[in-house]
Design goal:
Blueprint (H helix, E strand, L loop, with lengths): L1 E4 L4 E4 L7 E6 L10 H19 L3 E6 L6 H10 L3 H18 L15 H13 L3 E4 L2 E4 L15 H11 L10 E6 L14 E3 L1 H12 L6 E9 L3 H16 L2 E9 L2 E3 L2 E2 L10 H7 L2 H9 L7 E3 L1 H21 L9 H11 L5 H21 L4 H18 L6 H4 L6 H19 L3 H13 L2 E6 L2 E6 L3
Parallel strand pairs: 3-4, 3-9, 9-10, 11-13
Antiparallel strand pairs: 1-2, 5-6, 6-7, 7-8, 11-12, 14-15
Helix pairs in contact: 4-6, 6-7, 9-10, 10-12, 11-12, 15-16
Length: 466
């Protein structure tokens, strides 16, 4: 397997620290608001990676944290008059509901910053003992001048970071690049006791401490893969790598992976621009699987331009898989086609090359339909197709729905009952050879944007696609 390593800026062969075991840490959300499409894009990229490793036979330990103490959360507390626990519990629940709708499973371990305070304090204490930390009026800071490898991950220079650092700076800091590991609390803010004074952890220290607690290995590297959005490369991941390297004398991760931004009609998604697209809103209009397929359709490192025209085109591509699934109407397969499986895995092993993967799927669908046209009753063929689709369900998380239910999306339960009643009336008319009535009912259904098909298993129906 080849993965693009943000550290070396090139593809590298993946070699795990421990044979047949992969340790992955992905930065999760700060839980002060609902999940947006950027959260979904990142979660899907690493869900695909996790599924691929499992398909390859690896044991995977996957950790994704929740930042549950932060300036934004404190602001939300002030605005909403809710407690920290109320806010955090609500938005973690909402985040998981949205991710589950996309077919994304929970991580194996999901640590919270507030549940890791002791580990964070021990981490800072060790850095202080080694001479990397200093205390000023507003908190405990990391002295970046003592890390000769600072900027080695992001590849930035001092000049590039000065403007950003000045915004976060104060006159007591030794260097503009220095960052807070422990922030002393202001009146009315949540606070935890520490050797330096009551306060709360800085953002970067949380992840380093939780990785050490839950995943750290011996040797040169603590974990195999550290992932997150491209916006986290600097300063968050640079600072994580820095403090972990200095605290443990180990490199934090062998491979660093970053997914691209989500844009809406060309603009980087940002609340400050007023164009943030909440996932919950998208799920009101489209099913989770349709959104999953669309968001997976672009390479994970590329910036993703979200627009409904492309989404509908993506859905039509997914429709083809479900139309094939409808043709086979069989629950159990035999074994996946070896050439098909190999082609899919070869594509994904090339840094999750999704374009090549989808091209293989398109070719399989076309080939399967041509064979079914020639041999519509070939059970062996149908079982192989079923196995191919099951393989995609497991690896990509697509094709998981009942094929007939997929084409009935958007129809209410009351409407479904009315449709089924009309179909029964048509069946009776056909049995009585009242073909005029049968045709009239078909026309009525068509006027309701419902298409019916008579099959050996009975009459089936679907919503006419736009």
């Amino acid at each position: 397997m080849l993965l693009f390593n943000s550290l070396s800026k090139q593809k590298e062969e993946f070699i795990p620290i421990e044979k047949n075991h992969v340790k992955i840490y992905v930065c999760g959300p700060t839980v002060y608001d609902d999940a947006h499409l950027g959260h979904a894009r990142s979660a899907l990229a690493f869900d695909l990676l996790r599924r691929l490793f499992k398909t390859d036979g690896y044991q995977v330990t996957f950790v994704k944290n929740f930042t549950d103490i932060d300036d934004k959360i404190i602001t939300k507390m002030t605005e909403s008059k809710q407690t920290l626990e109320e806010i955090v519990t609500h938005y973690i629940t909402r985040y998981k509901e949205d991710m589950h709708a996309l077919g994304i499973e929970d991580a194996d371990i999901e640590p919270k910053a507030t549940e890791s305070i002791e580990d964070i304090l021990n981490f800072i204490q060790h850095l202080e003992d080694k001479g990397f930390a200093y205390v000023i009026d507003d908190g405990v800071y990391f002295d970046t001048s003592k890390d000769k490898e600072y900027f080695s991950l992001s590849g930035r220079s001092v000049d590039e970071t000065q403007n950003q650092s000045r915004v976060e700076s104060n006159s007591q800091k030794r260097d503009l690049k220095d960052f807070a590991m422990w922030k002393f609390s202001k009146s009315g803010e949540p606070a935890y006791p520490s050797p330096w004074g009551k306060g709360r952890p800085g953002w970067h220290i949380e992840c380093s401490a939780m990785i050490k607690k839950h995943l750290a290995s011996s040797g040169d590297y603590q974990i195999d893969i550290h992932g997150g959005g491209a916006d986290l490369l600097f300063p968050h991941h640079e600072n994580e790598a820095c403090q972990s390297r200095c605290e443990s004398d180990q490199k934090l991760a062998r491979y660093w992976m970053h997914n691209g931004f989500v844009q809406i009609d060309g603009e980087k998604m940002s609340k400050s621009l007023g164009n943030s697209f909440f996932l919950k809103d998208a799920l009101q209009v489209y099913t989770g699987e349709v959104l999953r397929f669309y968001l997976l359709s672009s390479h994970y490192r590329a910036n993703f331009n979200f627009n409904e025209e492309d989404l509908l085109a993506s859905k039509k591509r997914l429709d083809k898989l479900y139309r094939l699934k409808k043709r086979i109407i069989i629950d159990k397969g035999s074994s996946v086609n070896k050439s098909f499986k190999a082609a899919i895995l070869n594509a994904l092993h090339d840094d999750l090359n999704i374009s090549a993967t989808l091209a293989v799927i398109d070719e399989m669908i076309t080939d399967a339909n041509e064979k079914l046209d020639k041999e519509p009753k070939n059970k062996g063929l149908k079982k192989e197709i079923r196995s191919n689709i099951t393989f995609l369900e497991t690896l990509l998380g697509i094709g998981t729905m009942n094929a007939f239910a997929y084409f009935q999306i958007g129809i209410s339960e009351a409407e479904k009952r009315d449709i089924e009643t009309l179909i029964k009336q048509r069946d009776i008319a056909k049995a009585n050879k009242d073909y005029a009535q049968s045709d009239a009912i078909r026309d009525t259904l068509k006027a309701k944007q419902i298409q019916i098909m008579d099959t050996p298993e009975g009459t089936v129906w679907e919503k006419i696609q736009a």
